[in-house]
Each structure stands twice: as C-alpha cells, then as structure tokens.
Specification:
CATH class: Alpha Beta
CATH topology: Beta-Lactamase
Protein name: DNA-binding protein
Number of helices: 9
Largest sheet: 5 strands, antiparallel
Keywords: DNA-binding, Transcription, Transcription regulation
Number of strands: 5
Number of domains: 1
Shape: globular
Strand content: 5-15%
CATH superfamily: Transcription factor LuxR-like, autoinducer-binding domain
Order of helices and strands: HHHEHEHHEHEEHH
Helix content: 40-55%
Pfam families: Autoind_bind (PF03472)
Organism: Rhizobium leguminosarum
GO molecular function: DNA binding
Strand order of the largest sheet: 2-1-5-4-3
Length: 202
Amino acid sequence: MKRRERAVGNCVEDAAFSPSQADGAGVSADDCKERLDAMAKLAGFDFYLLSAFPRGDRTAFTEKRLISNWPQSLVGFYEAADLFYCSRLVTAMKRTIVPIFCEEGSFAGSAANQENRKLNVLFQMHGLKNTFAFTLHDADLKQYIFAFSGGCPMPKREQAMALLYGCMELLDKVSRSSSVEDGPLETLTRRKIEYLRRWLIS
C-alpha cells in the first residue's frame, strides 16, 4: 500500500461520520423527515424546510421544496405569491456562507407592500416567526437550503453547530445513496446535447 493511500484510509477511519456508514444505506423521505423533525425540536424549532437553492428560470417554490412540515395551506399560498427566489432569506444567503437568523418576514420579499405584510402575518399565524437557515452543497455541488422556523430566539452557538453538522450528515447520506442509484455522476448539459444532435445530423 502506498503512503498516500494509507494516509487517506486512516483519515476515513478517524472521521466522526465515516463515509462507509452511508454507503449502501438508502435514505427514504420519511427518514429525512424524522431526522429533520428531531433536529428542529432539539433546537427549539417547530418547522423545517429543505429546498434546492433557487437559480435561473427554476424559481417556483413547489419545484424547489423537497421536504418540509409546513401546513399545506401555507405552502399553497406561498407558491401563489411566488416570492421564494427573492425572499429576504434567500437574498441574505446569497451574501454570506455563514448561517443566518431572521426575525419576522424571512420568507417575504424585501419590498414594503401589502402583499408582504399579509405574508408576514400568515407565517406568524402558523407559528413561523423566526427562522435560522443556512446553505449546504452536496458532493455534486448542488446547493440546498435548510431552514428551521418557530417562535424561539436564535440558537446558541453549540445548538447552531449541532444543527449545521446534523444537516451535513443527512445531506451526505442522501446524496451518497442517490448517486449510487442514479448511476454515472456526469450529466450532459442542454448545450452539449444540442451540440451532439447537430454533430449527428451533419
């Protein structure tokens, strides 16, 4: 065994969360919900949201929302409002890599209009007053938002670190199990597909 292989192998075994624990262990949506629910409750939050980060022309909330325990009526209203991509929360996350904490109105837009005020009231009525959120990338460099909401104040540093690390473990486990199922990691972009079509025609 080469020195580098031995060093890499030793580091893997010393890791707090070994990648070998995730290999072959499929993660269901119910497992994800249970883990997110447990992490949220441990930090004092009532609600959680896992979504893909809104980019380009795919900004609809229901397309981006992967897992949440939000009331269905709130999800429907928020989808109709179409403010997720330009919400205070997403705007703040575009400017920093550290977790953020928003008091009131985190999912509304930054404009001071009547629609945003209604949205703030609706979120507060459902118990989503304050939100602690951060973004993470999976092994394929896809970006995700983890948001925990409720009436509690900003979590202490230890709680915040536990939430962040717990979500990193969950995302790693999910991305490993889905990459095994999906097959090859490389995907063709629209541009590459179009180029191949033109090349085949000529």
